[in-house]
Amino acid sequence: MSTTPRMSTIRFRRLALSVVFVAAMADAGSGLAQQNSTEGLRLVAPETGPEIRAQLTPRQYTTLSSEIAGRIDKINTKLGDHFKKGDNLIAFDCVIQRAQVARAQAVAVQAEKTYGINQRLLALKSIGQLELDVSAAEVQKSKADLASANAVASKCSIDAPFNGVTVEQRAREFQYASPGQPLLDILDDRSLEVELIAPSRWLSWLQPGYVFAIHIDETGKDYRARITRIGGRVDPVSQSIKVVAEITDEAPELIAGMSGRAMITAPH
Prior knowledge:
By secondary structure, the protein is of the alpha+beta class. It is built from three helices and 14 strands. It has helices spanning 3-48, 95-123, 129-154; strands at residues 51-58, 61-65, 70-75, 82-83, 88-92, 157-159, 164-169, 176-177, 182-187, 192-199, 211-216, 221-230, 240-247, 259-263. The longest helix is centred in the N-terminal third of the chain and has 46 residues, at 3-48. It is elongated.
C-alpha cells in the first residue's frame, strides 16, 4: 500500500521538471528569435536610411610660420580673435632689414647717376661704349639688390591671407623665431564643409548636387546640406568613399569641429 503514493510523487516531480524544461526552451527560442530580428534590422538599416557620422571642417585653414630669423615684436591676435584679410597678425623686429633696404636704395641712386653722367661723357667722346655698358649693368644690379632687400623686409610682418579666426597661438611676443617655425594656426570659420564616409555602393546614385539633412550634436538642430565633391578613390577594405558637402542654410552658430549625423536615404 505504501508503494503507490511514492510512485505518484516521483511521476509528479518528473512532470514538473518536464514543464520547466519546455518553458526554458521556449524562452531560449524567443530570445534567439529576437536576436535574429535585431540583427536583421541592423543589416537592413544601412540600405533604408542610415545615419552616418559627419564632421564640419574649414574650407581654408593654415599654419602661419616665420620666413626669417628674428625677434617677434608684436602679435596682434589671440586665441578666438577674428580678423579680416590683410590685417597684420605678427610683426618682427626688423631694424637690420630696414637698414639693408636703405643701403640698397642709396646704391641704386648712385648707379643711376653714374649712368647718366657716362651717357653725357659718351656724347662728348670722353669715354667709350664699354664704360657706358658697365654703368648700365651696375644700374640693373643695384635694382636687383634693392628688390631683394625689399623682399626680405616684407617678411617682417605677417598679414592675414583670408578672413578668419585664430585657433592656436604657438609663439609669444619677444620670442626669437627661426625660419619655418610655426607661429599661428588660423582658419576661415565662415566657409565650412561637411566631411563624411559613405558606402561605395552608393556611387550609382550619390552624385554632386544631392541634397540631404544633417543633425549637428552641439546645436541639436537639423540643417540642409548639398554634396559638392566625391573622393576619387574607394577604400577597398571598408568599401567606402569620402564625400564632401556644404551647408546650404544660414547657420552662423556653426563652427569647425562640430559633428553630427548625416541622414541620407537611397532613392527607391
